[in-house]
Write a structure and sequence with these properties.
single chain, about 300 residues, alpha/beta, 8-stranded mixed β-sheet, 3-stranded mixed β-sheet, 6 helices, binds 5-phenyl-uridine-5'-alpha-d-galactosyl-diphosphate, binds manganese (II) ion
Length: about 300
Amino acid sequence: KSRVRNMVSPEKLLYKQPSVLVGRTDVVSVTPWLAPIIWEGTFDPVLIDNIYKPMNLTIATTVFAIGKYDRFIRDFLETAEKHFMVGFNVRYYVFTDLPHNVPSVNLNQGRHLTVIQVPGSNRWQEISARRMEIIQTTIEHQIRREADYIFCLDVDSKFHAHWGAESLGRLVAVIHPGYYEQTRDRFPYERRPASTAYIHMDEGDYYYGGAMIGGFVEDVYTLTKVCRNKFEEDAGNSIEAARQDESHLNRYLLYNKPSKVLSPEYLWQDFKAKTKEVKVIRFSGVIKNYAEVRPN
Ligand code: 2GW
Ligand code: MN
């Protein structure tokens, strides 16, 4: 689709004066390579959405629902309609082996759903590897023409609060809610040098969650292409990274720094109690019965 145009200033919008002295001090809101880390209280959502809205952007959103994960689609879509990129053009792409099980959900104006049939599988390793491949090829054949930005999300999740244009950037990653208080040697990176996802104990920035990748369509295209190739290279050497696609993602992001980092507000887990620095949970993974939803 069209390249992203210059920003248009929000005319006649009254908003609070920004300060260079007063703001959040309990969290770090910029990385050492000067990418913003998005926390509640560091941005004005009305101002940001007003800057981006005149650009008439389209945001692609991909989710996979293979096998019994079809049960998560309804809540995902219904809560996204309430909270995710409200007022923007959104195109959902649902990849599933059971297209007839995709529920019909009422979509707001400017929002569109495409169901794409993909082969089923019983092996997570295969679904995980194929996810990168399918995103890559669908960007090539379709999404590239239809959207400016893309978010690739886990389907076993719900939105609970505002997720808007503050999340847009060239390459966007999210900090995993499980490890942000830990030192890098405790991160579950792939630690075997034989894997192409290998990260040394003394390296690494954050532990990023695999349930959200975002950015310009072309940047996410390159990410999925590289991760897919490395996945396949590992498979050829009979090696599978510790956390599959998440391991490859973390390795990619170490050498290709994200231009924006979302705080764990954008990827929580329902079983985890809220911590004091998290003022709002915007998106979280639901509690699931593993025995019930996962193939053996
Ligand atoms: C099949 C076997 C074992 C585990 C999952 C699946 C499975 C995954 C499936 O039968 N059908 C399916 O549609 N999925 C899709 O993959 C679905 O979109 C789901 O949200 C996504 C990731 O699987 P999930 O949500 O069960 O794994 P989590 O929540 O533990 O995911 C984190 O870790 C993964 C790597 O191990 C991924 O990086 C994922 O993105 C992370 O959030
Ligand atoms: Mn998940």
